[in-house]
Amino acid sequence: MIRPTIFVVALGLQTAAAAAQTTTPTPAPTQATPSATAPAAAKPGITLAKFEARREKAFMAADTDGDGKVSLAEWTAFQTGRKAKGDPARSFARMDANHDGFIDKSELDALLAKRFARLDKNSDGTLGADERPGHKTAPNQEQ
């Protein structure tokens, strides 16, 4: 009777070893789907802050002495270098709100805020492609 016991024990060990090697299949990874609570994509267009930052960077290229403001001489040289149309002294006078002979960041920001508001036809706080001057979908307007 010893033999059947060994057989049963051996069979039990073989079954246990086979069970240990068997693994449960792992579920395939699922792709993430956008949920209804996911934040909406940012509204396309240019905000006032981005509009100001871009225009300030371009405008301040005229500040050749690096003092943070643009003089009439700097503006005239800048406009001449760009081959801009019109009288630089006249455009400078329009921008120099406090008539101190310089255009500083506060005067430029005020000017840009007015221009942004004029361009933002639907008053949504962003300039869409059709509201930006020079864009192919924009109506032909004086810049």
Describe the structure.
The chain is mainly alpha-helical and 143 residues long. 46% of the residues lie in helices and 7% in strands. It has 5 helices and 4 strands. A two-stranded antiparallel ribbon has the order 1-4. Strands 2-3 form a two-stranded antiparallel ribbon. Helix 2 (48-59) crosses helix 5 (105-119). The termini are far apart.
How is the secondary structure organized here?
Layout: H1 2-21, E1 46-47, H2 48-59, E2 69-71, H3 72-82, H4 88-95, E3 102-104, H5 105-119, E4 126-127
Antiparallel strand pairs: 1-4, 2-3
Helix pairs in contact: 2-5
Short summary:
It is built from 5 helices and 4 strands, in the order αβαβααβαβ. By secondary structure, it is mostly helical.
Sum up the structure in keywords:
143 residues, mainly alpha, two-stranded antiparallel ribbon, 5 helices, 4 strands, elongated, disordered C terminus
